[in-house]
């Protein structure tokens, strides 16, 4: 996805004179490449508003209707915004945001930078509440977590294979997980959300929110996941080759 910049109020020659319905019709024709709306949102504040509030909401309602309807039940507000949900539905958060390599490689300097930062996933995997429930410890099973369907985005390194997933909590600020991450001081991490502008992030592993049987193998975490203040989750399951 394109890195966001502050859009100006000048939307270009002639385009600023078009009514919203005409602009939305034009924007609807530019949805084949997922990056186009992100680029246009950088052009002007008007484009950014139309893309974020109308185009992305319509896209989510069409392609992930069940998740969209559930996240909105009883509320008209979507924490993090519609553009973030659309990005989450089609983008891998990358290894850096998933957190599994922070301890091993604090300053990645590899040529394959595409696997470190958010990038388009191989396909639209959809989301499953059942998969989210499998990740959470027993006392958090009442929370609603939608996670991308297995296997997510697969990255094979020399010594490990990473199955990178992403997800979103429903009503995160009312969830038991939210209460837990705030109670554990060591759970706060210096990592930005891969999908929204959330400035606060917590480690679900450090806050004991993940299933214990998934957590450790020979002293190292098998599953690592971060959650931002808007309930967006970035994580990965680590698998080592059998010969190691």
TrEMBL record:
- Cite the F-box domain residue spans from the record: 16-51
Pfam families xref list: F-box-like (PF12937)
Superkingdom of origin:
Eukaryota
Q: Sorted alphabetically, which SUPFAM superfamilies does this protein's record hold?
A: F-box domain (SSF81383)
Q: Which residues form the signal peptide?
A: none
Extract the PANTHER family matched here: EID1-LIKE F-BOX PROTEIN 2-RELATED, PHYTOCHROME A-ASSOCIATED F-BOX PROTEIN
Q: What is this protein called?
A: Phytochrome A-associated F-box protein
